[in-house]
Amino acid sequence: MCVRVCAAVALLVFFPGSLALDLLRATATSGDPLSIPKVHCRCSSYPNGALCSWSQPAASPPTHYIATYRERHGHSSTKMCNITSSGSSSAFPDSEQHWHCHLPNLKLLTDYIINITAVHSGGSSNFLASFMLEDIVKPDPPVDVRVSHHKSRNLLVEWSPPPTWASQHIFPLKYQILYQWEHKGSSKSVNLGPFENTKIELKGLIPGRAYQFQVCARELLGLGHCSSWSSPVNIIIPRTKA
Ligand SMILES: *[C@@H]1O[C@H](CO)[C@@H](O)[C@H](O)[C@H]1NC(C)=O
Ligand SMILES: *[C@@H]1O[C@H](CO)[C@@H](O)[C@H](O)[C@H]1NC(C)=O
What we know:
Blueprint: H1 2-12, E1 22-28, E2 40-42, E3 50-56, E4 63-71, E5 79-80, E6 83-86, E7 97-103, E8 111-120, E9 123-132, E10 143-150, E11 154-160, E12 173-183, E13 186-195, E14 199-202, E15 210-219, E16 233-236
Antiparallel strand pairs: 1-9, 2-3, 3-7, 4-5, 4-8, 6-7, 8-9, 10-11, 11-14, 12-13, 12-15, 15-16
Keywords: Glycoprotein, Repeat, Signal
Family: Belongs to the type I cytokine receptor family. Type 3 subfamily.
Signal peptide: 1-20
């Protein structure tokens, strides 16, 4: 039994994209570690709760999930987490199915335990992890990124905060800018920031060169992680006429 459990844990500790979830235990009674849900939790609007997600492999048997959470310390009650699904549809029955559960009204600076159990005809699997809301903060990317020419060779980069970040006035965001270009076959990049403004003027860029701009957003005091990069915006600075 221990061999089985340890193998499952080793498989799961480094799963990608995980945000500071502290895995406590992962078990599969059927002996198939792949049936253990790989759960990722994220807070995209501090302090408005978290969304935990996992996917179900296309080939897995019909599975029913139970998701609960509770405070790690003290005697608070265990709460059920409402589960919704997306992904697999009748048009693509073989695609992965994604499951989500929303944890509203979490206390700040408090350790929580999330317990996800997958029940299928071959047995059941369980995923138990601990997290604190502050560690899993990751806003959605900024939107509406615009790059325009400004005073001859300068560029003005502007963007809007992610609309899903609801408490902009209480928990402001800061931003980083990444711009990239190709030079003699190799790709170069510059990372600027953080900025509290939602625009910045850049000087000294090279006329005729194609630049790609992206922006990410992070909670101002540095909670959690920067968002994913926004979709790239491309611009070429015109050569000044001779
Ligand atoms: C779960 O769904 C029920 C019914 O839609 C709702 O009353 C309840 O507040 C929801 N619970 C959570 C934790 O979202
Ligand atoms: C996790 O949830 C399952 C299903 O509700 C339950 O049987 C199990 O005891 C729970 N584990 C912990 C450690 O709370």
